[in-house]
Amino acid sequence: MATAAHWIEGARLRTLPNAIAPVLAGTGAAASLDAAAWWKAVLALVVSLALIIGVNYANDYSDGVRGTDDERVGPLRLVGSGLASPTAVRGAAIASLTVGAVFGLVLALTTARWLLLIGAACLAGAWFYTGGRKPYGYSGFGEIAVFVFFGLVAVLGTEFVQAERIEWAGAVLAVGVGAFSSAVLVANNLRDIPTDTESGKTTLAVKLGDPRTRTLHLVLLVVPFLATLLLVVRTPWALAGLLAVPLAVRANNPVRSGGNGLELIPALRDSGLALLVWSAVSALALGFG
């Protein structure tokens, strides 16, 4: 039987920077327009956290019942390890996604009802990443989805529900956040190339192969700092985003040095930390610069 600690580990708390960062960035963009609404920022954070925990449980369930996690290299999976039943993990996924849907509904009804369509797309994206008959995560589209949902949609959505408009600085932040978030998934999928190939999970890393996937990780880590240079047009304080450079370098070290398997776990952690630091300081720079 899975303990509370197992369920917490199954929620994959290390991925939470991918949920927190876009809300920070979007709120910073709204603050730069003198339109920050803190209660909406809090609701957006709840939505983002609920969705990422929901998608983590959904992936655990879908990968587990497909047998993809039978030879697991990374962190614990509840279904694949046999600690929890598929039904229980699916229920946890649905419960988390429902929480996100409810708070998202509040944001939509208090801002613009067409946001309900965006919310529905987010829920579908969360479930069908590894769920359904033809999961898009098994066809190499995972990184694109992460860039869109945890970058563009999450950042610009957070900005819009507060400011009721979006502008170029928010879009630049969204690209940076999306690139960092995709880098986290690239490191994860690089680690899993051998087991994913064996199980028939054709991720982008499997399609690109090991060397090109390592190059992609580096490129994605560079993009946010190019975004920083663009944000200097708004405020010179945006250069504070360069404080995340050491974390990005540390994140790429295991990838650049040819690490495999568990050796790549620090790349996931540090890519997420770089994302969080870059988003936080960039948001502060825009909001108060």
TrEMBL record:
InterPro entries: MenA, UbiA_prenyltransferase, UbiA_sf, UBIAD1. It is a multi-pass membrane protein. One of its GO terms (cellular component) is plasma membrane. GO terms for molecular function: 1,4-dihydroxy-2-naphthoate polyprenyltransferase activity. GO terms for biological process: menaquinone biosynthetic process; vitamin K biosynthetic process. It is an enzyme of class 2 (transferase). The chain crosses the membrane at residues 37-58, 88-107, 114-130, 136-156, 168-187, 216-249. CDD domains: PT_UbiA_UBIAD1 (cd13962). It catalyses: an all-trans-polyprenyl diphosphate + 1,4-dihydroxy-2-naphthoate + H(+) = a 2-demethylmenaquinol + CO2 + diphosphate. Keywords: Cell membrane, Membrane, Menaquinone biosynthesis, Transferase, Transmembrane, Transmembrane helix. Its EC number is 2.5.1.74. It holds the Pfam family UbiA. Its main location: membrane. Pathway: Quinol/quinone metabolism; menaquinone biosynthesis; menaquinol from 1,4-dihydroxy-2-naphthoate: step 1/2. It is found in: Cell membrane; Membrane. It comes from the Bacteria. HAMAP family: MenA_1. Conversion of 1,4-dihydroxy-2-naphthoate (DHNA) to demethylmenaquinone (DMK). Belongs to the MenA family. Type 1 subfamily. This is 1,4-dihydroxy-2-naphthoate octaprenyltransferase.
